């Protein structure tokens, strides 16, 4: 019989596991930039208990559902995620007594499959591609169907649920500004569901409008428009502009990177600074480095190191895998700085250039968030 409240009686001053989500370290990086250039600062989201930034949104959404009585111990949580959001839910499910079913696609890594199994979460693989050649829409539609079939189940709905962005508005952005104050001159975020970039950009526009906010996507994804094609970078990308990123005027600049840029950068980060982070962190780092190289020594450029690098030991950190996929294995500081120097923004006016919204999609895919919104409107 698990303790319902007994734990806090026994140890009145100790936090529970989920109290350790957020308040991650903010550290200075000394080796990638030169004297006189801007300073690089990393927020180490790998310090979250589930190992990634996604713990924040997952716990914010589940805690909200618990508080509103939408979910009870023993209930089933169903989500479309092959990666960190699903792993965060699996961790929360184990801690709070929920069954978790992750709807994944064949691109899921062996490590993530093992992590789901370790936490006791179930996995369903959807192998039908959608009209954009990715699996996002077919996975979401499947998750929504299953949600309707399993009574009392809960769908966090990370792609359409505004609580995803709100988690970062209330925690990540606030923590960054509290740690850095007026020294913070720019923040760089990668994008998929838009939770991070949407929440952080809205917060900074309101409370620190002088801070430049920069979004990063990978070529082939069309969050900011552009040409759709396959890509290898995990964690980043979507085939439309997500609703969590509904105010593109809060984003100053947008960059699109190649897979090679991203993989080379995450490998260089660990060699040069000792920060073992995941692939998408390489994307944010490269753009942050480009900004720092053009900034003055007083300016601090922050980026999120979004997950643990151990998850990529069989891919990004395996030279054979990289060579098989036609990518450079270079980890030199000069190489990274040359790549950073050659970057140009995809847009310096994303509100005008980049909107690729699909407002009808939430309803088409039968998103529970859309249903709740429609019920409220009706
Ligand atoms: C490692 C990593 N980086 C970046 C992102 C993008 O974050 P968001 O979905 O908040 O846009 C994700 C999303 O899954 C991720 O797992």
UniProtKB/TrEMBL annotation:
Q: Can you give the residue ranges of the Tryptophan synthase beta chain-like PALP domain?
A: 19-307
Q: Which residues cross the membrane?
A: none
**Keyword Cell membrane annotated:** no
Q: Keywords of this protein's UniProt record, alphabetized?
A: Pyridoxal phosphate
A Pfam family in this protein? Answer: PALP
Question: So which cofactors does this thing need?
Answer: pyridoxal 5'-phosphate
Signal peptide position in this chain? none
What domain of life?
Bacteria
The family database entries (CDD domains) matched by this protein are listed as: CBS_like (cd01561)
Can you name this protein?
A: Cysteine synthase family protein
């Amino acid at each position: 019989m698990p303790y319902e409240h007994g734990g806090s009686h026994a140890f009145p001053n100790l936090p529970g596991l989920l109290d350790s989500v957020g308040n991650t370290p903010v550290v200075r990086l000394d080796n990638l930039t030169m004297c006189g250039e801007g300073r690089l600062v990393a927020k180490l989201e790998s310090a979250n208990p589930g190992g990634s930034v996604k713990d924040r949104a997952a716990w914010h959404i589940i805690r909200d559902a618990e508080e509103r009585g939408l979910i009870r111990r023993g209930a089933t949580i169903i989500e479309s995620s092959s990666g960190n959001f699903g792993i965060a839910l699996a961790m929360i499910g184990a801690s709070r007594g929920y069954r978790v079913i992750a709807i994944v696609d064949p691109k899921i890594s062996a490590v993530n499959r093992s992590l789901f199994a370790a936490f006791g979460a179930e996995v369903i693989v959807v192998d039908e591609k959608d009209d954009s050649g990715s699996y996002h829409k077919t996975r979401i539609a499947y998750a929504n169907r299953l949600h309707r079939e399993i009574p009392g189940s809960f769908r966090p709905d990370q792609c359409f649920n505004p609580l995803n962005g709100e988690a970062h508005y209330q925690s990540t952005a606030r923590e960054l500004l509290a740690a850095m104050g007026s020294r913070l001159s720019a923040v760089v975020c990668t994008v998929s569901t838009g939770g991070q970039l949407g929440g952080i950009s809205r917060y900074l526009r309101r409370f620190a409008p002088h801070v430049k906010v920069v979004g990063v996507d990978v070529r082939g994804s069309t969050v900011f428009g552009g040409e759709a094609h396959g890509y290898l970078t995990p964690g980043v990308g979507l085939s439309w502009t997500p609703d969590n990123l509904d105010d593109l005027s809060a984003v100053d600049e947008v960059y699109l990177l190649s897979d090679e840029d991203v993989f080379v950068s995450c490998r260089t980060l660990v060699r040069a600074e000792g920060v073992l982070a995941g692939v998408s962190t390489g994307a944010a780092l490269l753009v942050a480095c480009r900004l720092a190289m053009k900034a003055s020594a007083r300016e601090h450029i922050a980026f999120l190191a979004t997950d643990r690098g151990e998850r990529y030991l069989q891919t990004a950190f395996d030279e054979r895998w990289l060579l098989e996929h036609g990518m450079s294995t270079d980890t030199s500081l000069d190489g990274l700085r040359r790549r950073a120097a050659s970057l140009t923004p995809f847009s310096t006016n994303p509100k005008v250039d980049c909107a690729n919204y699909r407002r009808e999609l939430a309803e088409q895919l039968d998103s529970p968030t859309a249903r709740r919104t429609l019920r409220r409107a009706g």
